[in-house]
Amino acid sequence: MTPTILVVADPLVPEAVRARLREAVREAAPGAPLILPETDAEALERAPDAEIAAGWSLPEGFTERAPRLRWIHAFTAGVDHFVGMPGVRDGRVVLTRTVGAHTAVPEHVMALVLAFSRRLHIAIRNQIAHRWDRPSGVGGEVRGQVMGILGLGQIGRALAELAAGAGMRVIGTRRTPAPVAHVERIFPPDRLDEVLREADYVVVLLPVTPATRGLLGERELRSMKPSAVLINVARGVIVQEAALVRALREGWIAGAGLDVFQQEPLPPGHPLYALDRVIVTPHVSGITPRFFDRVAAAFCDNLRRYAAGAPLQHIVDVSRGY
Ligand code: GLV
Predict the structure, then answer these.
(1) How many CB atoms lie within 10 A of CB 290?
(2) In the chain, which residues fall in CATH 3.40.50.720?
(3) Is residue 286 in contact with ligand 1, taking CB distance under 6 Å?
(4) CATH 3.40.50.720 fits 5-101+288-308, yes or no
(5) How do residues 25-44 score in pLDDT, each as one tens digit?
(6) How far is the CA of 129 from the centre of ligand 1 (A)?
(7) Ligand 1 proximity of 4 Cβ (cutoff 6 Å)
(8) pLDDT value at position 9?
(9) Which atom of ligand 1 is nearest to 98's Cα?
């Protein structure tokens, strides 16, 4: 029996990429019925047929309606939105995630670092107001500054390389503090404060686990330098947002570059939009046209393994959460 495959594509996926994805899936699993629902309602309606499901997310209630489901492949690096789903949580359904496709994330972080360093967040606001203000435009230099990377997984390690290439000194936290190229000092998670105290740029690249949810609150934000900038490209729930808004309003820290939020879309009227020391991007740090191709290739590689009965790659340890 060929497995029925259901793929929920993000509306951001261009049609040309969807066509390539369809083709790649057909090649990797010849003859397997492929469902490409356009809406959540359609995904839920077709759930009972699916043995394999893939996507950025699946609608709530999907796994409950999918008794044949054996495997979910997340197009994301973070899988916090999948691990709690019934079926995944109890091990009935294998969950795999996408590794190696998010090469734009370190570039996005560096863009934010350089934007804050060169005060582009202020320049753009001045430009919109037709204001020529040289004092507010005088920036700094990143060479010699310290980047503290919280979470030195694959993306964090690629970021360390870029930051070191720009002349920055890199420190960070990691659960297993083995040496990492381009990182001067690595601290275990319980020595987070040392990184927060020293870094000019604190970059959050952690998965969501019970230990990291709400990890950065008032105490942690106050232990950062008043000149430091927080960058979060992981998940909004790792930072306590109300404390962050206070930190920015009251100057405990100098700025924040945020791609992720507790509530997405970030609702209109949210204070983070209006604070001039904040750069908001709409959860796109990894996304480029080439990213979608890499995601499709990674899924199809696993699909071929599945079809051949071989072990899947990048299986999530659901008890750990990543
Ligand atoms: C996106 O947020 C991802 O985790 O890949």
Answers:
(1) 12
(2) 5-101+288-308, 104-280
(3) yes
(4) yes
(5) 888 899 999 999 989 999 99
(6) 34
(7) no
(8) 79
(9) 5
